[in-house]
Amino acid sequence: MCGHAAVDPKSAVHCDILMRQRVTSISLEPKKEKMERSILFVCLGNICRSPLVEAVARKHLADAGLAIEVASCGTGGWHAGEQADPRMRAAAAKAGYALEAHRARQLHATDFERYDLLLAMDGNNLRDLRRASGGKAHVRLALFLDWAGAAPPRDFPDPYYEELTAFTQCVDLAERGVRGLLERLRAG
Predict the structure, then answer these.
(1) Among this protein's residues, is 37 annotated catalytic?
(2) 116 annotated active-site
């Protein structure tokens, strides 16, 4: 099925062609509203960074009284349907963020139409977003920490192959980034 890892190379090529057709057939013009009403956080597998940032943003946006839809996804689909990484769930829970209900999903062509802003966790994710958008949504694609004014670092480090402390550091970085995100959203 398109959007998931294909075993047969012919299927992969067919899937790639279908995804390109879908991406080029949607409107990728910037939304006209001043404040973003929906934000998609994007990482590689949607089991570590982007679900964490989604949970942190959801809580802090609600606490601030801002009605902004947030979601997350991965550029890759190999973890689709899985929970967030258990190490990230533990680090997030310790800081008061629940990731238990999260299920990973892959980026869809319709995400470029649905979300006002798509924030990538690192440069590779941003490159993949630009490629998937056909280069037409650049104004709505950005690095999360850059857009939030929370860089450096520009890239949100992927803790997947790191020690447990890296997951705790991700929580701290997500909170710092979301504070910057809130400031920018309030400033318009």
Answers:
(1) no
(2) no
